[in-house]
Amino acid sequence: MNRIISGIKPSGELNIGGYGGALHQFLKLQDDCECYFFVPDLHAVTVPQDPRLLLRRSKEIAAYYVAAGVDPKKAAIFMQSQVPAHAELSWLLETQAHFGELGRMTQFKDKSHGKDAVSSALFTYPVLMAADILLYRATHVPVGDDQKQHLELTRDLAERFNNRFAPVFAVPEPVIPEIGSRIMGLDDPSKKMSKSNPNPNGCVLLQDDPDLINRKFAKAVTDSEGEVRYDWERKPEISNLIEIYAVFAGAGVPEIERRFAGVGYGAFKRDIAEAVIAKLAPIQRRFADIVDSEELLAVLRDGAERAAATADATLRKAKQAMGLLTFG
Ligand code: TYM
């Protein structure tokens, strides 16, 4: 059976980009695979965080997993910091990672650019991510396109370790969907949709109310051709909107092009907003019920126990392979 691991960092409110690239995929995989979905809170602290806000956001991400339909009976849902093996394996893997290859990570370059006080944890961030994945001997990792380079490093580290010591790790495959893995800003299709975008209209949050969602899509930039056609080269704005509609309405690209032929952008944008609102409404209701509940804490406690059972077994094998003492 395929093993899946993935997570969404609690460093800002969840937006529909994270839904398209990650959460939406989690739901498809949980029925047929052994799944581990976690909240990478140790990744979030690689940049400064307000401690109270971090805890709140971490619970919110876990609540969104459940609210969107991840079933805690099928998938283990947990906080990364609750399973100590992540930090421990990360240290072991750091001994195998090269300074140069970490320096080539584009996310590190982007996040450290122009800053003088960059934490060393931001630099070793991708090694912790490799540990997250390798601990579960995951075969597949559903992620958005921006995580591709981190997955390549994970595969390199797994192979390097296995060749040098013993075949402890599975070499994982990224699962990057054709549609929805690169949802771009509504204000600028050359930039990934992200909460850090200074223009709030560029990013639709999972918590946005219907009015705000309508307004954000109404303001989305377009070309002036008036033709709903999927063509990233020539029509990036409309292609981005088509992808969002495809994720939220569950329709294929050719079908969308047919459906909106000759309709004009105004009506298209209203229909996208409607599809997003319809999908988010039940998620928002369930989210409000559970985010502050004991039920969520119970899910996280149980998830951490299940995750630790798998993770600890792999960590023990890695330590043994490296010549570190283990009992049992
Ligand atoms: P993060 O928290 O930045 O994003 C979470 C997931 O959402 C995807 N994503 C997007 N997909 C499409 N369009 C967008 N605009 C968009 N924005 C985000 C990301 O590709 C990601 O899949 N390092 C990871 C978290 C992580 C992780 C892991 C993931 C830590 N350890 C182990 C998988 C396995 C990150 O920062 O993702």
Q: Can you tell me about this structure?
A:
This protein is mainly α. It folds into 2 domains: 3-181 and 292-322, HUPs (Rossmann fold, 3-Layer(aba) Sandwich); 200-287, Tyrosyl-Transfer RNA Synthetase. Helix content is 53%, strand content 6%. The strands form 2 sheets. A 3-stranded parallel β-sheet has the order 1-2-3. Strands 4-5 form a two-stranded parallel sheet. Helix 8 links the parallel strand 4 (140-142) and strand 5. The model has no long low-confidence stretch (mean pLDDT 97). Bound molecules: tryptophanyl-5'AMP (TYM). The site of tryptophanyl-5'AMP has 25 residues, from strand 1, helix 1 and helix 7. It is found in: Cytoplasm. Keywords: Aminoacyl-tRNA synthetase, ATP-binding, Cytoplasm, Ligase, Nucleotide-binding, Protein biosynthesis. Belongs to the class-I aminoacyl-tRNA synthetase family. This is Tryptophan--tRNA ligase.
* Strand elements, count: 5
Which CATH architecture of the largest domain would you pick? 3-Layer(aba) Sandwich
Which hetero ligands occur in this complex? tryptophanyl-5'AMP
Subunit organisation of the chains:
single chain
- Major beta-sheet overview: 3 strands, parallel
**String of helices and strands:** EHEHHEHHHHEHEHHHHH
CATH superfamily of the largest domain: HUPs
Helical content, roughly? 40-55%
Function: Catalyzes the attachment of tryptophan to tRNA(Trp).
Protein name: Tryptophan--tRNA ligase
Family: Belongs to the class-I aminoacyl-tRNA synthetase family.
Binding site for L-tryptophan: 132
